[in-house]
Amino acid sequence: MSDVHDLITMGRVGVDLYPEQIGVPLAEVRTFAKSLGGSATNVAVAAARLGRRAAVITKVGDDPFGPYVRDALRGFGVDDRFVGTHPSLRTPVVFCEIHPPDHFPLLFYREPQAPDMTLTEAELDLDAIRAARVFWTTGTGLSAEPSRSATLAALAARSGGITVHDLDHRPMFWSDESEAGRYARAALKHATVAVGNQDEVAVAVRTRDPYAASAHLLELGVEIAIVKRGPEGVLARTAGELVEVPPVPVDVVCGLGAGDAFGGALVHGLLSGWPLERTIRLANAAGAHVAARLACADAMPTLEDIEPQEVRT
User: Fold this and answer.
1) Rounded to 5 degrees, what are φ and ψ at 272?
2) Residues 174, 261, 258, 288: what is their CA dihedral angle, to the nearest 10 degrees?
3) b/e map of 165-188 (b: 16 or more CB within 10 Å)?
4) What do you get for the CA distance between the two ends of the chain, in Å?
5) Alpha-carbon span 42 to 294, nearest angstrom
6) Segment 41-91, tens digit of pLDDT
7) Does residue 143 lie within any of the structural domains?
8) At a CB cut-off of 8 Å and minimum separation 6, what does 109 contact?
9) What is the per-residue pLDDT for 310?
């Protein structure tokens, strides 16, 4: 049992390049800072920074960025045993622009296909997935085959523990975006927790209203529905409880990665058995901590960084 992970995430990985010149178009940026990226990867890093035993199921290219990803994961304390290598595709690179407080456009280099989207069911360690205390999937993993079938197979293999589906909708990753809602609902049938912002939950339940959306998510079978509402905070709902938590005030530097920090702290709170409100407050504090900094993975907080802030808010 010592080999059981607190958290296994499955999905996107990449190398993020953050401009060191803030508030200018990408064409005018002169220098960039490199960081580990990808939503599922960042959530694993965030949980590891909070003391959890985390791993990520993903895939890199057979290029110099592949070893960088593995080294970075190990440096953050994330188990890289489930990171595969595609023989011909390139490890994705993502450029961003930074226009605080709320405009952070991304330019993805994931063509012709990202290695993480080539994950197949045959490559999965289903025993490890079953054993993990928390298993985390994302909407991006459903956007194309064979990752779609692999993600659904991994979810179907779960028979206990906490299973989180992050709705994580990126329209540019779907060749037919009209399919996104159907596959989101298919994933949620196997999840105990659903999390997403108002646009993302609308993909699954066809409404942005957080109260109606959270109720619909519970009807789909999850036990906890979490709707992130930006400056209005977070709404979290179970069959018997509705919690609304305001945001943590912060001077935003870069909003990218804040949601992933939220996810890692959410996992920590759920595994700790905390009340829902305390868990969401910690998750909000983690997101605010990252939003006040430039990078994603490199900015993920420790518990000491955020718990005093969480208690005060």
Assistant:
1) -80, -10
2) 160
3) bbbbbbeebbeeeeebbebbbbbb
4) 37
5) 14
6) 999 999 999 999 999 999 999 999 999 999 999 999 999 999 999 999 999
7) yes
8) 90, 92, 93, 94, 95
9) 47
Domain that holds residue 192: 7-13+41-92+111-312
**Whole-number pLDDT of residue 118:** 98
The DSSP secondary-structure symbol of 121 reads: G
Is 21 part of a structural domain of the chain? no
Question: What is the per-residue pLDDT for 296?
Answer: 85
Per-residue pLDDT at 308 = 65
Distance CA 141, CA 151 (A): 6
Asked if the structure places residue 103 within a domain, the reply is: no
Write the Ramachandran bin of 233: left for phi over 0, alpha for psi from -120 to 50, otherwise beta: left
Query: Do the Cβ atoms of 225 and 210 come closer than 8 Å?
Result: no
- CA pseudo-torsion sign 53, 138, 199, 96: positive
Question: CATH number for the domain including 281?
Answer: 3.40.1190.20
Residue type, 290: V
Give the CA count within 13 Å in the CB-facing half-sphere of 72. Answer: 26
Rg (CA), the chain: 18
**How many CB atoms are located within 10 Å of the residue 95 CB?**
17
Task: Tell me the torsion sign for CA atoms 137, 166, 288, 33.
Answer: positive
**Which are the contacts of 143, defined by CB distance < 8 A and separation ≥ 6?**
117, 170, 173, 174, 180
Alpha helices in 142-257 (DSSP H): 147-157, 180-188, 198-205, 210-219
Task: Please give the pLDDT value at position 112.
Answer: 95
> Into how many domains does the chain fold?
1
Residues 6+ apart with CB under 8 A from 247: 230, 231, 232, 233, 234, 284, 288
Is there a domain that residue 277 lies in? Answer: yes
Q: Which residues of the chain have pLDDT under 70?
A: 1-2, 308-313
